[in-house]
Design a protein that fits this description.
heterodimer; A: mainly alpha; MetI-like fold; 2 domains; 14 helices; 0% strand; B: alpha+beta; Rossmann fold; OB fold (Dihydrolipoamide Acetyltransferase, E2P); six-stranded mixed β-sheet; elongated
């Protein structure tokens, strides 16, 4: 069956359709970001604009305090990531390696939080932030995500797979629990940590809902909010400017992805095959 | 001095008593092998000495220090694990260095130690590789180097050769013997393989179901077993143990207390012709299988007394299945109803035995 050339062709066509479904909107976004407003409305659509309008990007960038947004987004996404690493690594180690009173119960509670949608709890969190006087500050965007049930779950599974003998060998080598975590567990879980970091970074970099609720001024707003404001320019929707703004939003993620992808492959190469 | 003593050590896992009131002394500088079938408590004993498991009751002494409640890293012990337990994300160098770093040994000294040890075990050119890039034998050497570099008082080896192929296992066995001679440190070696125990140990501790069966030198263990368990565990093939009832016609003058009679496969003569041999137990037998190993031949034969193994160093018998086996009376071993050895002649025999021949 697999050697049949017809099958190969069908396979290729199938893949092509899949790629088109995923890549087309992206290509369309890039294309639109270089067009004039007139060109965005043309039918049949033009894939390659007559002239590349680089000024769309500067227009988008200058339509608001984008440097500030960019800075805020970076602080929020990275701040969340650092705090998450600080909390999920010890938590996952404890859940994976210790049998303590109520460990199953606490792990169960942790898992249940995965099932609660953000929209259900934003109000109490909002009130809490308000009580602490943190509304409209970056803290309100970072603190609620300081830990991650998903991350704890993912990392716990990975820590559980480390053979007990490795920990025993380390204990005989006079390693403290902290050294065991940092020198043995974390390096072995590197692919999982990088994968998680990627998910977390992308989710919080792109997050629109939470900053929308928690912030009221440009001083603490993030990129997605800034981009959404581009739509309101001149009454109608300036698609070309909006898409340029989107591209600005997406480019850092692409960098993160390419960097992480290479890391993941490298990490798998030296832990996977025995 | 690092003599190791276990005093009334008991280990229970829930209701299951894995080690039962163990009293042992492991001499300083000895190569002691703890051997026994799987589930006999040998690994648990080892892990208690290492501190990876704490005894339910009893005390463990290393030298003049009671270490029962001392954590593993502080016992001055190094362990080699069955699956090596090398840190997969570290290079060979870092693997060896890890314990030294934790002990806060200065960098220059660490470098010198790593150099010295990797020379001894022949790893110098592999220092910057990761464990996955090494063969089984090389990984084994890394595990050894990691243990040696700490200059421990006691080496603990938990079935370290069981993941290697037969040829490499033989080689590593000889290397370990040399290493022990060179270091002069106490070695405690756990295995289920009696060949390893016989060939490497200068003291063997044979365990079964958490109870010590015999502590002895390899040759004593072989020639002078205390009980049926030891007799059936040591030797390739092990001693043949026969029920007394089925030997009644051959050995009429046995005392009542004798329940089992044993003989070693190599002590029996096998021949196609019946020879009149005085002072021998002669049984007409039938060959079931013949294993020719070159220098020796192992026959499994059946006769009135049961099935038994015979080891012969003469040319294999091929032309007939009907043979006679003859065992000298003075090479027979006698055991009582508790499977304990009966040693003195007057304790098992009422009168001198006549030469007898039984028909199959």
């Amino acid at each position: 069956m697999k050697k049949n050339p017809l099958w190969k062709v069908l396979n290729g066509i199938g893949l092509l359709i899949l790629i088109t479904i995923f890549a087309l909107p992206f290509v369309w976004m890039i294309s639109t970001s270089f067009k004039t407003l007139g060109e965005t409305m043309v039918f049949p659509p033009k894939w390659i604009p007559d002239t590349l309008l680089w000024e769309n990007f500067s227009k988008a960038w200058n339509s608001g305090p984008f440097l500030k947004y960019f800075f805020n987004s970076t602080i929020v996404a990275l701040g969340i990531l650092v705090l998450q690493f600080l909390t999920i690594i010890p938590a996952a180690y404890a859940f994976a390696r210790y049998k303590f009173k109520g460990s199953n119960f606490f792990f169960g509670v942790t898992m249940v939080t995965l099932m609660i949608p953000t929209q259900l709890i934003f109000l109490p969190v909002y009130l809490q932030m308000s009580a602490w006087g943190l509304l409209d500050s970056l803290w309100a965007l970072i603190l609620p995500f300081a830990s991650s049930a998903f991350g704890i779950f993912l990392l716990r599974q990975s820590f559980k797979q480390v053979p007990e003998e490795l920990l025993e060998a380390a204990r005989l080598d006079q390693a403290s629990e902290w050294q065991i975590i940092m020198r043995i567990m974390v390096p072995m879980a590197k692919p999982v940590l990088i994968t998680f970091a990627m998910f977390s970074f992308i989710a919080h970099w792109n997050d629109y809902f939470w900053p929308l609720v928690m912030t009221t001024t440009d001083a603490s707003r993030t990129l997605p909010l800034g981009i959404s404001k581009l739509r309101e320019v001149d009454g109608g929707v300036a698609w070309n400017i909006l898409m340029a703004g989107n591209l600005i939003l997406v480019v850092p993620i692409l960098f993160v992805f390419f960097f992480a992808q290479r890391q993941i492959i490298r990490a798998f190469v030296y832990t996977g095959v025995k | 001095m690092a003599e190791i003593r276990l005093e009334n050590v008991v280990k229970r896992f829930n209701e299951d008593e894995v080690v039962k009131n163990l009293n042992l002394t492991i001499a300083d500088g000895s190569f002691t092998v703890i051997v026994g079938p799987s589930g006999c408590g040998k690994s648990t004993t080892l892990r208690m000495i290492a501190g990876l498991e704490s005894p339910t009751s009893g005390d463990i002494w290393i030298g003049d220090q009671c270490v029962t409640n001392v954590e593993p890293g502080k016992r001055n012990i190094a362990m080699v694990f069955q699956n090596y337990a090398l840190y997969p994300t570290m290079t060979v160098r870092k693997n060896i260095e890890f314990g030294l770093v934790n002990k806060k040994v200065p960098k220059a000294e660490r470098e010198a130690l790593i150099q010295e040890i990797s020379d001894i075990v022949g790893l110098t050119e592999h220092l910057d590789k990761k464990p996955q890039q090494l063969s089984g034998g090389q990984r084994q050497r890394v595990a050894l180097a990691r243990a040696m570099v700490k200059k421990p008082k006691v080496f603990i080896l938990d079935e370290p050769l069981s993941n290697l192929d037969a040829k490499l296992r033989g080689q590593m066995r000889r290397e370990l013997i040399q290493l022990h001679k060179r270091l002069g440190t106490t070695f405690i070696y756990v295995t289920h393989d009696q060949v390893e125990a016989m060939s490497m140990g200068d003291q063997i501790i044979l365990l079964d179901q958490g109870v010590v069966q015999q502590v002895d030198s390899p040759m004593n263990m072989y020639h002078d077993p205390n009980n049926v368990f030891t007799a059936e565990f040591i030797g390739t093939p092990a001693m043949n143990i026969l029920e007394r009832e089925r030997l009644e016609i051959f050995l009429p003058s046995l005392m009542d207390r004798v329940r089992h009679v044993g003989f070693k496969p190599e002590h029996a003569h096998i021949s196609a012709e019946m020879e009149k041999m005085s002072d021998h137990l002669v049984m007409k037998s039938e060959i079931i299988t013949t294993e020719t190993l070159g220098a020796e031949t192992i026959y499994t034969v059946m006769n009135q007394a049961g099935t038994m193994n015979i080891k012969s160093f003469t040319e294999p018998i091929t032309d007939t299945q009907k043979v006679y086996i003859a065992i000298p009376f003075d090479q027979l071993y006698f055991f009582d109803e508790n499977e304990k050895r009966i040693r003195a002649t007057e304790d098992y025999m009422e009168a001198p035995m006549p030469a007898m021949v039984g028909g199959a």
